[in-house]
Amino acid sequence: MYSGPVIDCDVHHARSTDAELIPYLSKGWREYVTDRGPAGNVPLTVQDGFPNPHGFMRADTYPAGGGEPGSDYPTMRHQLLAASDVRRAILTFGDDSHLAGHHNPYFAAELARATNDWSVDRWLSQDPRLFSSIMVGSQLPEVAAEEVRRHAANPRMVQVMLVDNPFNRGFGHPVFHPIYAAAEETGRPVAIHGGAGGWANPPSTGGGTVSTYFETHVLWPQAIQTHLVSLIAHGVFEKYPRLHIVLVEGGSAWIPSLLWRFDAEYKGLRREVPWLKRLPSEYFARHVWVTTQPLEVAPRKENVIELLRSMHLEDRLVYSSDYPHWDADEIDYLTTRLPGDWHRGVFFGNACRLYDWKEEDIEQPRAAAEKAR
Amino acid sequence: MDVGAVSDFKDKRVRIVQAGSHEVGVLRWRDRFFAVHNRCPHQSGPVCLGIVSGRLSGSAPGSMEVDEETPVLACPWHGWEFELEGGRALWDASYAVKMVSVSVESGRVILEVGRSRD
Q: Do B89 and A267 touch (CB under 8 A)?
């Protein structure tokens, strides 16, 4: 068991209806999406995707008063923040996290601006323990960079988040670099969330489109692997040496295997990427962080730990619940899967280093934090 | 061991000679000569059959620059690259091809068989 302070790095806050976001759109875009008569409003979320036979949310997370899971602060506070000693939670949006999957780049940029303002207004104002990601419409990287800079002065907008992939190019491709320039300039890590090929546009799997949610969920790490390799190979960490990346909801036990292969390939194919000055695994160790959920389950848990330890991931793993999604990992469960001497770092200390927070600033006992809130 | 006249060696080409029980690759790089055992430290491949070029580098992502003063030999098996000044692998100095001393005397290229450099 672990009873110390917790930082949860993947909490999906959501809105119940489009109507909740529409007031945050500019006047013109409000006019665009509304008043279509019997056709209803233009949908704000990316359509299509794979249906989950269970539904995507934990059944117990639907607010008693109605609305979508993750949309009601008191419910989240009760189920997540108060259930353990969560000192800080990083909000990562619901359906709006897929806004870079919109075909219309201008609409996506506007949605990013609106959803970020919604997050600040409707969530960060409610609880000092809540921190938000910055969504960007990466279809227009320069506009996305400006959106990142717009939040530079707000210390509770703590990271840039990329999910869908509008260009079908690995995230290391120079087309994305304006976003990294802004992230580095403003001191924000960039989180790449599972599904980072695209929920529906394009699909997240290499080798071809699969048919079921089951398949796509098994293959969730593929897109993140693509982006990790792309970022390192394109020299993003040479170009932006203070940039940090967080791999969210992509698993972790595959990382040693990929990095072993990556290093071996580098030794033979360095000629193609001579701007790299280190082994790929060294860039990873300096620049990349990984969330815990979903922790791979092996028949012998020691097998997973041995893999993670081989790349010193105990120093790079940060706890994430993925609340309120159906496949969320509970803290008590994770404590049974991770060595005891990892707990403090994984549940708290590593995230403090990632987000450049002083542990002592958030170490105060829970009761005091509740009172302050 | 006399392995030929300087004029017999084409610039930036490796010629493999038999030196006792070993194959040795002799490379002319402008007016400099290098000699290296034809055995890669990785998987014992015929390293001297590989590409010879100036060392490639990139001062920024996407840039491709060449240092023509630093010849590099790339093994045709797996592509590992070695600087011919010293024989070290570019990515890890703990790996190196075995260099052989070579000199030019009176227009002849002389391999000092049995004498390794570095």
A: yes
